[in-house]
Design goal:
globular; 79% helix; Growth Hormone, Chain: A
């Protein structure tokens, strides 16, 4: 196993007294805010009629394409080269491309889409690199606490940032807000701490790149709990997340006659996630993998609440439970990957995680609306809820899922 990047005295200090972790936390938080802010700011631009709703869809789709294209490549590069270097390049690319989105606003949709694809590539490249860098900077016995702190920063951002951004939009225009996100990407590029100082691997060509990514897949296959958990996570996001994105606004409008239910449910989801991140640090169940999968299954209560004619408060509570459950899964999941996977392949395995779980979410979003038109919302919500409950249960059948730790049959 590779040696750790942070000095020994830092690794024994409380997390937020460690300069290396503070730099890591700041970089991850900055990239998280910049990632979240782009669609929200562009939504404000639609309200200002700077771009059309169709244009918004094109730009966000281009960003997703860039993300999906970059994730596997970045996984390979972050295992070849120092992870901090990959983070720096990813942040620099995103920072340079973001002002071009502002430049194209109202002038060229093609320029906006191309720039958004580059920003998405930067976003996708930094995710596996940051995941691997966390394992290098933080000692193993502190990683669950570190992952909880990292996810807390993102959740707090999504809770308070909409109101703050809307307030700033009164003072400055949306292009200026977009340029501000470029500054955040610059912070993400410049501030990360040093990890393991590895010599770059000399390799070239698409064939070699594909071969190294396949090596990462082979490493993933050595961990049955990972394959089972990733399958469950992908199924839940593709169905439960889609119900949130498509059906919740319709139910809020048609059943309850107000957008307040939509706003309340989304706020409750984020608040629940904050609670879940706190709980996962304080609790250490013996069967941590099963507990995490049970948390993931809580997402099923979200589409279930949309199916039944329940009071609005029940919908809000269901989304709070789903938010708590997703963090009860996420934090042990990331920690287990950092602990169990060969450090030499950690970024590639992490890229596979992000590629499938996040990559298939747009597919679910694209399919759920036609499915509702064909079968009606009731059967679709039943299918979504059943999938959210069943997929984690099936994953729990895999023996190594009990603790997210498999017996290693080959040396590390």
């Amino acid at each position: 196993m590779a040696h750790d990047g942070a000095p020994a005295d830092e690794r024994s200090a409380p997390l937020f007294r460690s300069p290396s972790f503070l730099r890591l936390w700041t970089g991850v938080t900055a990239s998280g805010i910049a990632t979240w802010a782009l669609p929200f700011i562009l939504g404000l631009a639609v309200l200002e009629r700077s771009i059309t709703p169709v244009g918004l869809g094109v730009v966000l789709a281009a960003r997703t394409v860039g993300f999906l294209a970059a994730v596997p490549v970045a996984g390979v590069l972050a295992d070849r080269h120092p992870r901090r270097r990959v983070v720096r390049w990813a942040g620099t690319v995103a920072a340079a491309a973001t002002p071009l989105i502002a430049l194209g606003m109202g002038r060229s949709l093609l320029l906006m889409a191309a720039a958004a694809a580059v920003v998405g590539a930067g976003q996708g490249a930094c995710r596996p690199a940051y995941q691997a860098l966390t394992a290098e900077v933080v000692a193993e016995d502190r990683r669950q606490q570190a992952n909880a702190a990292l996810t807390l920063s993102v959740r707090v951002t999504t809770l308070v940032a909409p109101g703050l951004t809307a307030l700033l939009a009164v003072l400055v225009d949306t292009p200026a807000l977009l340029v501000a996100t470029a500054a955040l990407w610059s912070v993400s590029a410049l501030i990360p701490p040093a990890g393991v100082d590895r010599a770059p691997v000399t390799a070239g060509g698409r064939t070699r790149l594909a071969s190294e990514f396949l090596d990462g897949i082979r490493e993933a296959r050595r961990h049955p709990w990972f394959l089972a958990g990733l399958g469950a996570l992908t199924a839940v996001i593709a169905t439960g997340y889609s119900a949130t994105g498509v059906v919740l606004p319709l139910v809020s409008r048609d059943r309850y006659g107000t957008e307040a239910v939509l706003a309340g449910a989304l706020t409750a989801y984020t608040a629940g996630a904050l609670v879940g991140a706190v709980l996962v640090v304080r609790g250490h169940p013996r069967a941590q993998g099963w507990a995490a999968l049970a948390g993931l299954a809580c997402y099923g209560f979200a589409p279930l609440s949309l199916l039944l004619p329940v009071p609005a408060a029940v919908v809000v509570a269901a989304y709070a439970l789903a938010g708590a459950g997703i963090e009860l899964f996420n934090v042990p999941w990331f920690t287990a990957i950092q602990r169990e996977v060969d450090p030499r392949a950690l970024a590639r395995v992490s890229s596979l995680d992000f590629l499938l779980s996040y990559g298939l979410a747009p597919v679910g979003l694209a399919l759920i609306a036609p499915a509702i038109d064909a079968f009606g919302p009731g059967p679709v919500l039943v299918a979504c809820a059943a999938t959210c409950f069943a997929a984690p249960a099936l994953a729990a059948v895999v023996p190594s899922s009990r603790g997210f730790a498999a017996t290693r049959s080959t040396p590390r």
